[in-house]
Amino acid sequence: MADPPMVEAVGVTHEFDVSLPPLRRMLSREPRRFLRAVNDVSFSIARGTTLGLVGESGCGKSTVARLSVGLYTPKSGEVRFEGQNLAEARRHGGARRQMNMIFQDPYASLNPRWRVSDIVAEPVRMYGLEKNESSVRRRVEMYLTQVGLVPSDGDKYPHEFSGGQRQRVSIARALSSEPEFLVCDEPTSALDVSVQAQILNLMRDLQRRLGLTYLFISHNMAVVRHMSDQLGVMYLGRIVELGDAETIFQRPRHPYTRLLLDAIPDLDHIGRARTPVGGDVPSPIAPPPGCAFHPRCPLANARCREEVPALVDVGGTRVACHAVVEERGSDGALG
Amino acid sequence: MTPLLDVRDLIVDFPTRRGVLRAIDRVSFDIAPGEVLGFVGESGAGKSLTGAAIVGLLTWPGRIAGGSVHLTGERIDTLRPDRMRRIRGRRIGTIFQDPLTTLNPLLRIGHQLTETMLTHLDLTATEARRRAVVWLERVGIPDAPRRIESWPHEFSGGQRQRVVIALALCAEPDLVIADEPTTALDVSVQAQIITLLKTLTRENGTAVMLITHDMGVIAETADRVAVMYAGRIAEIGPVAAVIRHPAHPYTDGLMGSIPTVKHKAERLRQIDGSMPRLDAIPAGCAFHPRCARAFDRCLIDRPGLLAAGATQAACWLHAPEAPHG
Amino acid sequence: MSGRAFLDSDVVHAFRQSPAAIASAFVALVLILSGVLAPWLAPHDPTDLATLSLLDSFKPPWPAAKAEWVNLFGTDSQGRDMLSAIMYGMRVSLLVGFCSVAIAVTLGILIGLTAGYLGGAPDTILMRIADVQLTFPAILTALMINGIAGAALPRTMRDSMQVPVIILSIGISLWPGIARTVRGSTLVERDKEYVLAARVIGATSWRIMLRHVLPNVLGPVLVLATLGLGLAVLTEATLSFLGVGLPPTRPSLGTLIRYGNDFLFSGQWWVTIFPGITLVLMVLSINLLGDWLRDALNPRLR
């Protein structure tokens, strides 16, 4: 590839220790237990583009978000930022300034005891980007204006703002160190739709103006479609479909992607009756063997119950599904 | 036909030490037997409070400060709490966002179902138990005769919400108030629950007041929809009309701001600003500061619901003498 | 927070609504002021031996016969004015109380923050220490530390070091409660997204603990500190009453009570009752204030 990707995940796996505390584990003779939140995930994000990651609760998308900014170090595999190992780079203080994160909960992501100007200025002060306080203040005011707030909002505390305005403060904080890469973990799922539209528009404007690269995580297919160039669909720790967003939305191949798309209530089909796919998302502590989706999959057979499907190239997108590769039950099967 | 539920000029106030906050301001609507009326609006618009006020579950210090609520002609907003408890459960079922708050974690779900039926219906214990199994089967819990002995925590989130639906419907109420019944669930499970709720209430002829922030859920489920803004109904009418030809500028903006999976828009339409806080609701039409089509009258006069095509909208643009253009 | 915002805050409003809080704040303020300002307010200086006269001994409190109104609370066996002795004694009690609470709060915050934020082994070790110490009554812990310090210090330094040793031993006996609370709140705060946001930009653990988490866990500490103040004053009084507290040269309320105890049954009741009443009033008003503050800061009870 001529242009190397800005961010790249190569076979990233991450586990959480969910065992009991040592003493109780000894008494109850339980072994240590690990939750494999992210399992062999690979993707790359080109500079100036957006990779969207969708999936339901427990699919590991938030863990991928945290791995991508270096909050966690992968158990195996590596995250690369501009070609270098992210964990390594962060240990030496590098790469930090070039990336930042926007969070889901506009109420928990701002320190309630800090003034907005101090919140936005924190990265600037941390990295010593401005020599004196008056230029710090100028920079804070510039970013507050850029996200649609007014400079005097800097004197207020977070509780004086609505959810949407807080999310703007969050974005201003994320931008204030002039990062190139932003990880957005469900940035609008706590907001009302009209406010969500404001924030999504703002994020796209900023991307265009500042040439930002986004990893955009959401459970909402429509929001992801609006934001993404590339799309990854996650299920129980693995990416099951990955490729050009438009291609996937026009021709979803993995049965799970199709289920997600079918599950979205549709404003164009008022009063539509439908037969939703049954079953719940299994617990990530004890995922089903083989393809983790097989208990809910209408196309599953014996092979799916035993063998984990690999991501393979199918007509331009990468899909991890035996049924798709074998062309078992072609398109009509899911309605 | 007399409506099943008739709400007239409902007012809900929250007295605080900085003055009285009016959370619901003269809301009127009715629900016909077997009808599904959707309520949409942003958080704080008052849609959940409207539901809570109807069933007498306002949290202190909120109180009904005006208006009336009639259930098949009987006035219920002035009933004593013990009489209201009889109506809740028997005549009006409730489904809330978080199934864990509805189910008692210390009782087996079979017990909770039979208890509800024995309280409200004239049944023997064996008959109640038989029906409990039937209800579990109807809401799609596999292996119901065995699962009836399970505790709430042994079910997944989606299954718990199924049990809550069974609990709300088992006393055969005339009306179910469902407040964000799918918000806490995963996307793929949401579709199951909505379909279930729709099928069961249709089979039983139960009317539903469906409160949600998700217009898509309304589109699939409701017959009519009321759009709330700042404690008032901005627009009310048949679902298809409100979605396809919104008459209130707020509804119009709301529809435009919903992203769709069907195609990728360059920009979403957005309504600038945010809904006013309860202590700062503007005079006249509450939406006028954010409305591109506001004119002088909107700043002074509060509009009532006016006929606007197939729907009714609280907007002066639909007054006969309004300036068009 | 600006002055006006403070006056308009919910806590101030709740304060104005609560007669018990206003009364106890008033009593506590009067007692604290009269203790702090004793050298300027007290009619006599009880430490100035030159002004004492045995002829003045055991005068009853004022309204009684033979009494002078300057000796409002009567005098003791040395002819010391009890009112002055109580004011000076309160001064000592309060000094010990405030200083030991300061030590307990500092220790409790540092240990609680570290345990809660870092988790894992530091958490287990620190909290087990706290648990063990919590199984002993505070007074026992203070007695032990006091005893150890007394044995370790050279005889010449013992008297001059008595006040710091008492402060330290009471301070150490009080930290586990504060540490537990701080740890609990820290566990809640540390997983909030604002803490993650600080970690993303590479803020150190110390910076996050002190600048981000600490301001958000201070509310309950304020309550515990108020309640701890009452407890510290009481602990000091108990230690002094048992004779292992402050030296008679700097009598605290506890010393006064112990000393007066000898005369309780020989008719000179005022020598012990008045310091006792003062102690009760002080601890009671401070504790009522702390209780009220806990309720006022608890959003669930509002």
Give a verbal description of the structure.
The complex is a heterotrimer of chains A (about 325), B (about 325) and C (about 300). With about 325 residues, chain A is of the alpha/beta class. Helices cover about 35% and strands about 20% of the residues of chain A. Chain A has one domain: Rossmann fold, CATH 3.40.50. Chain A contains twelve helices and twelve strands. In chain A, helix 7 links the parallel strand 7 and strand 8. The longest helix of chain A has 18 residues. By secondary structure, chain B is of the alpha/beta class. Chain B has a domain of about 220 residues: Rossmann fold (3-Layer(aba) Sandwich). Chain B has twelve helices and twelve strands. Chain B has an eight-stranded mixed β-sheet with strand order 6-7-8-3-9-10-12-11, sandwiched between helices. A four-stranded antiparallel β-sheet of chain B has the order 2-1-4-5, covered by helices on one side. In chain B, a hairpin with a 2-residue loop joins strand 9 and strand 10. In chain B, helix 4 packs across helix 5, helix 5 packs across helix 7 and helix 7 packs parallel to helix 8. The two termini of chain B are about 40 Å apart. The mean pLDDT of chain B is about 90. By secondary structure, chain C is mainly alpha-helical. In chain C, helix 5 packs antiparallel against helix 6, helix 5 packs antiparallel against helix 11 and helix 6 crosses helix 9. At the A-B interface, helix 6, helix 7, helix 8, helix 9 and helix 10 of A face helix 7, helix 8, helix 9, helix 10 and helix 11 of B.
Shape of chain B: globular
Q: How far is the N terminus from the C terminus of chain A?
A: 38 Å
Broad structural category of chain B: alpha/beta
CATH third-tier fold name of chain A: Rossmann fold
Radius of gyration of chain B: 21 Å
The class by helix and strand makeup of chain A works out as alpha/beta
Proportion of beta-strand residues of chain B = 15-25%
- Give the count of helical stretches of chain B: 12
Q: Assign an overall shape of chain A.
A: globular
The helix-strand sequence of chain A is EHEEHEEHEHHHEHEHEEHHHEEH
Percent of residues of chain A in helical segments? 25-40%
How does CATH name the architecture of chain A?
A: 3-Layer(aba) Sandwich
Low-confidence stretches of chain A: none
Report the major sheet of chain B.
Answer: 8 strands, mixed
